[in-house]
Amino acid sequence: MNINSLILRNLKKNLRNYYLYVFALIFSSGLYFAFVTLQYDKSMDPVEGSVKGSAGIGVASILLIAIVAVFLLYANMIFIKRRSKEIGLFQLIGMTKNRVFGLLSAENAILYFGSLVIGVALGFLGSKLLIMVLFKITGVEGIASLSFSPRALLQTFLVFLCVYVLILLMNLIFIKRQTILSLFRVKSQTEMTARKLSVFQVIIGIFGIAFIAAGYILSGKLFDGDFSTMVELFGAMIFILFAVILGTYLFYKGSVVFVISLIRKQKGGYLNIKQVLSLSSIMFRMKSNAALLTIITTVSALAIGLLSLSYITYYSAESAAYNHTGGKDFSLLTEKDAEAFRQVLDEANITYTENKAEVYTTMLDIEDILQTALEVNFDASMMETALISEDAAGIEVAPDELKLTGYNEMLQRFMSLKGEGDVTVHGKDSEVALHYTGLQDAYPISNYYTMGGLPTMVVDEMVFEQLKQDLDPEIAREYTMYFGYEIEAKDQLDKANKLFNSLNLEAADFSDSRIDVAEDQKSSIGLVLFIVGFLGLTFLVTSGCILYFKQMDEAESEKPNYTILRKLGFTTTDLRRGIQRKQLFNFGIPLVIGLFHSYFAVRSGWFLFGTSMLTPMIIVMVIYTILYSLFGILSVVHYNKVIKNSL
């Protein structure tokens, strides 16, 4: 048998073990090529002009290859160790280490570059689909063309060639360092774990849970006013990150073993076959698996968190647009513009309702009702505030009272207000003392007057007229009217929007359409959601594959145990049920803890990204869980094959 025949035979024999590795390589190379193709494609010009698409995709491609490189190197390490006896046999029959290295390199080259070619082909075909998805998310009007980019192909080839060189270097170091005897022992090495639970493991387990709990509790207080300076805020963030990651590692290292030991002790050491295959296997492998499970958990939490925050922003675009326009479909600021808009709506037979309000700017002293405030350049005794009457807001207010409404959620976290208290409204020459009675949710006027989310002051009609006569011209705004229009028949909204955009408005820069505002926000966040989505998918595939490869390696090493158990009379059904419990832990616990990590991370700062948290976050978590579970199912299928072939 010549060397070429040996290469082909080994490749064919090992291909069944490499199928998921091949899939991941095809997926990674295809996604990378598609991303780079987008970077150089002329179809991206509309996106580049609006949201710097090319630069964003360029950064994403760098992160993508970093993730893929780590995954491929880890997978190669697992597979080279699995073939350690085979490498030892080659050397035992007289092949030199260099010859063995050349043999493995040739096999790797066929597998690696064959997968790369398939991946590039699929990436080219999928690039048009990616452009269509990107245009849909960002709302960009453009034609998704399919064009081949030689620059993208060259860049993909060079990047994956560098990764291949690293793989070869790893293989060379492994072969050179191992003796023939050690190669036969690589797979048989077991971790030295004491059967009796040590006090140290109990302590680190308790510390692990304590660190995680401390991180969760602190994350909930991050923007509640407990940290008044930026230094304190960033310090708390760093501590939360450190505590949660370290706590996760200690949890796997000590807490899990502690809990399993308690279960075994409760049963007096008498475990059935399902418990032996699940609990015992997990307990005695946890020492080596703790670091890997911590990485998988952290990566899952990061992916879910980023996806949730991105989708929260995208999902909240409609409600944010409503708040921007004062809760109406259209907002205008002058009588002339309002008259022109009413005229075109009447001519088109579009029915509508109109809200009209006089809006003035005054100074409000909120020092006595300010509950907490981050230390920023802000004078609470002289806050510029929009002023409207109770009739305009549709809120009943007593003559000696004042209500605030439409306070941005993010600003509330940084400058929270008490439920009630005394405030002072400053005019040009006089002051009016009022009693603040609470905060309302509604946004009665447009963003032009609220300056990005500051609350609007609502007072009694008589007080409004009094303050109106004593306005300070130095803080007066250019416009003092708000006209809000709600289209009654929503099927006529698009037509009304076209009419609105066709007008030559006097205050065009500050007059808004809810549809246009929402589309602008979706366009701004759409590319971020697109990039984070595909990076999250890459995180999911690579972490799932790594965990699958680890379980596949464990299955092969435990095969002799299954042979003994089957000879003792245990059925394949008994063994499979135990394996299912084991995989439920190995894949389920990192996922569940990752979901908890991401939930508390998102909950601590979701208001910085949008107006709704639960719905978009649940959608992301459900989709991620379904896709992640597929790798657990594949792992169980592989174990079933090993059990079936064990006798």
3D architecture notes:
- The protein is α+β, with helices and mostly antiparallel strands and 647 residues long.
- The protein has 21 helices and twelve strands.
- The protein has a six-stranded mixed β-barrel with strand order 3-5-10-6-9-8. Strands 2-11-1-12 form a four-stranded antiparallel β-sheet. It has a two-stranded antiparallel ribbon with strand order 4-7.
- Strand 8 and strand 9 form a beta hairpin.
- Helix 1 packs across helix 6.
- It is elongated, with a radius of gyration of 32 Å.
- The model is unreliable at 189-194 (pLDDT under 50).
List the helices and strands and how they pair.
Layout: H1 3-40, H2 45-51, H3 53-82, H4 84-92, H5 97-138, H6 150-177, H7 180-185, H8 199-220, H9 230-266, H10 273-315, H11 317-324, E1 330-332, H12 335-347, E2 352-358, E3 360-365, E4 370-373, E5 383-389, H13 390-393, E6 401-405, H14 409-414, E7 415-417, E8 421-426, E9 431-440, H15 447-450, E10 456-459, H16 461-468, E11 481-487, H17 493-502, E12 512-513, H18 514-557, H19 559-567, H20 572-605, H21 614-644
Parallel strand pairs: 5-10, 6-9
Antiparallel strand pairs: 1-11, 1-12, 2-11, 3-5, 3-8, 4-7, 6-10, 8-9
Helix pairs in contact: 1-3, 1-5, 1-6, 1-18, 2-3, 3-6, 3-18, 5-6, 5-18, 8-9, 9-10, 10-18, 10-20, 10-21, 11-18, 18-21, 20-21
